[in-house]
Amino acid sequence: MINPFPKILFIGYGNPGRLDDGLGTALAARIEEASLKGLTVEADYQLAVENAFDVSKHDIVIFADAAVKGREPFFFKEIRSKSPMSLSSHSVSPEAVLFFAERMFHSKARAYVLGIRGYEFNEYEERLSEGAKKNLDAAVQFIVDLIKSNNFIESVGSL
Amino acid sequence: MLEIEPLTRVEGHGKVRIHLDDHNGVKEARLHIVEFRGFERFIKGRPFWEVPVIVQRLCGICPVSHQLASAKAMDLIVGAKKLTPTAEKMRRLMNYGQIMQSHVLHFFHLCSPDLLFGFDADPEVRNIFGVIKKMPELAVQGVMMRKYGQEIIKATSGKKIHGTGAVPGGINKNLTIGERDPFLKDIARMKKWALDALTLAKNYTLDHMDTVESFAAFNSSHLSLVREDGALDLYHGNLRAIDAGGNIIFDQVDYQNYNDYIMEEVRSWSYNKFPFIKSRGHIDGWYRVGPLSRMNTAGFTDTPEAQKALEEFKGLTNGKPNHMSLAYHWARMIETVHCVEKIEELLNDPDLQGNDLIVKGDRAEEGIGLVEAPRGTLFHHYRVNEDDQVTYCNLIVSSTNNNEAMNRAVTKVAHDHISGKPEITEGMLNHVEVAVRSYDPCLSCATHALGQMPLVIEMYDPEGKLIDRKSKGV
What's the domain range around B29? Predict the structure, then answer.
């Protein structure tokens, strides 16, 4: 049965000083501006183990990051928890955060990853490429509609 | 040739390249660091008041340290020779929160699998999942302590991505009673957990002295900031360097004059520079920084539990410098206790609710700011023109200061654990990683977008032919 009023956590992450790597945090800023009911927005340079605690306090979590390859303008998929063989605070995956949330804090949250396609990385410059900007606009619209509709199952199926 | 790229469970990207001879003997071992030197160019032309925010882009792991070091440099540009008590104490609180959360992450989640299960243990067991199964309370404590430190940062620095707390000349906010009280409520729990972790780290060291005494252990000089009375000070002080025997090389050096004492060498095979103490020359002048070095250089700490722990630590080597790389873990937990004690002290200080936040004085064209970051001494040096634009920037980050030491650690472990062996196992490779990991290096801050950062291990014979390749996602 679908919870009509789920507590949703949105975590956008990436480094805004590295061109399109900042897509996740740029999306977080745009989503926060929308002030959507029931939604908590977090932004950070990368995922970290303590995100597991935050995840455990919510019913649904969306991890948003830049993607170096794959579908344009973005992909959206449900994820399952996965134990990390090795752990770097620099590279904790969404699946690992979910794993920690389940094992340490008994989380039942459903989790999704939004990967916004970027094109320019690895230089120190605080701007998004033109292609990334367009993809960001599309992702903003998608997330706003998704949160308002609370229709996660169909949204995954449509992408 | 054998390559491990990038290292797992260290911050950023790195590659260890081990050159083998015909008998699988280690000819040479080197740590390659993928460092982006472009940042110093990127910062040129930017208004100086933006710098404490922009430099946080350099590293998603220790943005607070860069914020504070650059703000200290910019204090001098705006002529703020002495900050208000509120400003200095807010910055100190921020720094203690940063060091606490960084050390906790490293101990509880990055190195605990090695310590709890052994370097040679089956990697199916030797991982964070293994820790959660064996000591679930430890894993949870690690997360909650890390969260506490991160919340301190948020309360003092502002948002995680655009931290604006430290500004040229001071701080842009105080700590309200409402912000303070939740921290005070949890501080006793934090102190207990920190002391428990300290006991764990100490006992590991003492129970494994055969390993700890020899594993990646070598003599070196040590460098850090110390307070004017010689106490451990993680936010401000003067430079002290000691040699391997504990003799003072220089002491109470004003870091505005660091260029008279420290030089940086460029080597053709590495993007990363190799700093050294000028008076000792580029061959013998290398040194270590970070928790181990700070325990060696500091005469004492001004918090009771950390002081007791420091005395025990120093007793292990009869007051002489401790050169054991694996002792970094114990040192890191002494500092964690120190940070928690300092946080408690500051939370009870009414100066944090003061409203006198910023001072200014005579404008200057040059400023140098140093702090002790989690991984060691961090140097920020800037020049600014009359249009307020940055014209020069030089950074020496903690892991650069430890560059030579980490290379020596890799070389020693490769010789001790890989040289001459007929087959190279995952356990042997992990020994090399354990050595590097003990320094908790922040190798660089590359992007980490989805689809990047695979772990690749390649083995080559003496003719350079690829004989094995392993990869895994991280």
Answer: 2-34+419-473
